[in-house]
Amino acid sequence: MLIRELTGDDADETRRLRRVAFGSTSEDDPVRPGRRGLLAELDGRPAAVLTITGFHQFYGGLPVPMGGIGGVAVDPSARGRGVASGLLDRALTDLRDHGQPLSVLYATVPALYRSRGWERAGVFEWVDFPIDRLPAGPRIAARPATTDDLDALHACYADLAATVNGLVDRSKPGVDVADVLNLDVVTVVPGHDGEVRGFLTAERNRDGLRVFDLVGRDATTQLGLLRSLTSWAGLLDQVSLRVTDPAVTGLLTNQAIRYTVNTSTWLLRVVDLPAAVAARGWPTAPALKDAAVDLDITDDHAPWHAGRQRLVVEDGSVRVEPGGTGAVRLHARALGPWFSGMQDTHALRRAGLLDGDGDAALLDRLVGAPGVPRLADFF
């Protein structure tokens, strides 16, 4: 099996593989600024493909470089021959070489990705709201967005994203914020000196109205944007709202006891633990006394960080350095849900992903688990 970098000349084969695997395919170029890929060949023919898009994902208020893996497709004739596993192994080295200590994917075959160290670490959710249950918020001054609003709109989103573990910063080249203007509805609430106080983006299709983002800097703006959705009454019975800001869906809307949530889970892989820890924000660290926990990382597919490591908290900063007793043993799959805050060490221990006699409580105190980690982008 030969695994090589994907090139623009492979676009037709990439689309063929994905069409066969998924039944349909995007016409987007598989290789473009911010996106690269890998292609596996068997007997001289393309047999499997994946792409990696460069993102930055917020943890503890800081954006950590992350490679988003998507479109993993294997030709039917090549399945069961270790092609997908080989691609993923090569992808781990590629991610490290590109300075991306984290990787995220949406798993259609979880067992495959778990065997390579990815594990469930957050959610991607849509909530369906009957229009008559939307709050009667205030009227606000809103207008359609223009190209002149893009920087301020992105700043409004980024300020929110920095407070929600898991959200990506939507920076170039991985994301082009100008693409938002291709949607059917893009509304902004202007503030002073060109600031955007909030915005709403949505698309109308045969199934109804899909609201991709409803973001506001304050409750008045959020409630006003929710009120604007009631203008669809008579045309629609309900709207679907992607959960970007959990405060909107969790604290400002009027769901009954039972309501419909469509949830996808995403899997996180810590590719390089020392680099990931160095890039992440640790808001609780300044309040902790200097301390350390000795780890022993089991990771057959990322040997560069496997073995004994010490996670050290010192003078309010956190680092990982080689050495220690290895008292707390962590499987590669444990690193993602711990790093994101999705699972604490008690759950990891019950799942058989953490063991040993060492005191792992410092790991939980560091992460703090401030809410469910979320993504609001699909790739």
UniProtKB/TrEMBL annotation:
One Pfam match: Acetyltransf_9
Domain N-acetyltransferase: 1-137
Keywords, sorted A to Z: Transferase
InterPro entries: Acetyltransferase_Eis, Acyl_CoA_acyltransferase, Eis_dom, GNAT_dom, SCP2_sterol-bd_dom_sf
Gene3D superfamilies referenced in this protein's UniProt entry, alphabetically: 3.40.630.30, SCP2 sterol-binding domain (3.30.1050.10)
A GO BP annotation: aminoglycoside antibiotic catabolic process
GO molecular function: aminoglycoside N-acetyltransferase activity
PANTHER family on file: N-ACETYLTRANSFERASE EIS
Protein name per the record: Putative acetyltransferase
Organism expressing this protein natively: Saccharothrix variisporea
